[in-house]
What does this fold into?
Amino acid sequence: MAHIVILGAGIGGMPAAYELRSKLPAQHRITVISAVDYFHFVPSNPWIAVGWRQRDDIVLQIAPLLQRKGIGFIASAAQSIDAAGHSVTLADGQTVDYDYLVITTGPRLAFEEVPGAGPVDGHTHSICTVDHAQRFWADYEKFLENPGPMVIGAMPGASCFGPAYEFAFIVSADLRKRKLRHKVPLTYVTSEPYIGHLGLGGVGDSKSMLESELRGQDIKWITNARTTRVEDGKMMVDQLDDQGNLLKQHELPFKLSMMLPSFKGVDAVAAVPNLCNPRGFVLIDEHQRSKAYPNIFAAGVCVAIPPVEATPVPTGAPKTGYMIETMVSAIVHNIAADLEGKPATATATWNAICLADMGDTGAAFVALPQIPPRNVNWFKKGKWVHLGKIAFEKYFLGKIKSGNTDPIYEKYVLKILGIQRLHEPSGPK
Ligand SMILES: Cc1cc2nc3c(=O)[nH]c(=O)nc-3n(C[C@H](O)[C@H](O)[C@H](O)COP(=O)(O)OP(=O)(O)OC[C@H]3O[C@@H](n4cnc5c(N)ncnc54)[C@H](O)[C@@H]3O)c2cc1C
It folds into this structure.
């Protein structure tokens, strides 16, 4: 009998637990360990931040869901991992042994990289967690009584740009509905070298379409933006040229700001010798397996993926839902094979698909493979994306509630997009 421990119960971890339970023989034990006792649907956080969703709409208590499926659950953060000794020590003091460890701990939000940034000790908000999104909502409600300039965007080193655009457009749509948009000068500040880069070197017409949308919605922008410091109501930004030289310095006044931070790996994972790259992301082979520890696998934002290209202000490549879904399936297949004494052969598809809501319309893109030149390089805008994203939220939460193991992207999203199966392995060699 083997004990498989999954660290993290987010977009990667919960499906991994269900899929392992459905694929592995019953004698193998599965335990999920997570820092908090609930799952939350991260892509809905922008809607929480403007009051379009309530916390209860997107949060599910994990214990009863996993219990029903015969999966163990411990709500306590991992504090350290003894990879040589195959055990994890938790914040509550207990030590859990494992035969296989599946790491799906997502990002650590590196607010400390820009002085004055962050929702707790700093002056910028985030929508990366439901708690952060609720914090924005609390300040936004006060802001609506006395509106002023707003800055939305992504910090140097960020890798997740879709939600930054999404949020700028959602806020703009919300303010329009409230007939307050004219009182809110809105600036999109980004480390991307150009609008629509998205950490992907652009996708199809993303540059012209997103520029056009920003212009249409009267949102100014600063690209190649190295945000250096944030003070109460003021953001200091060095704008670089394409060679990386200083072009202009900006002091942007704001009443409210949401800036996505750069990501790192969580501390307990980053501290394991030889497991991670310098930013704490797990180094894996094409089978999602640690290069240093054959019984450790990783999926989701916690894995190391090289940037698509060097940019004047550092940017990273996004790790999105479809990629995560296929990473999880590859891990399940490979652990099952390993238990049977067979070689690991399954690979994930490192392709990017994103449905970005814009409040009343939306934009979808598909980048296959992630690094250009691509077989599919597709970017489209329309109200159908907004509706598709609402349907996607419903499907995904339904999947987590019921514990079904349908590959949601393969089954629904690709159909919405009218695209055939995209499984084309493009992981590390
Ligand atoms: C605001 C936002 C919107 C996004 N929208 C989309 C979208 O629309 N479409 C898309 O494809 N992608 C989207 N993404 C990208 C990506 O899909 C999400 O970031 C997704 O949540 C990543 O899944 P994950 O499992 O890697 O991490 P997470 O979902 O963040 O899960 C991490 C889990 O690890 C746990 N954890 C952390 N530290 C520890 C520890 N020390 N011990 C134990 N547990 C720990 C956490 O509690 C959590 O349960 C979005 C990202 C953000 C930030």
The two ends are 32 Å apart (CA to CA). The CA atoms of residues 39 and 60 lie 5 Å apart. The chain is about 30% helix and 25% strand. The domain at 111-263 is CATH 3.50.50.60 (FAD/NAD(P)-binding domain).
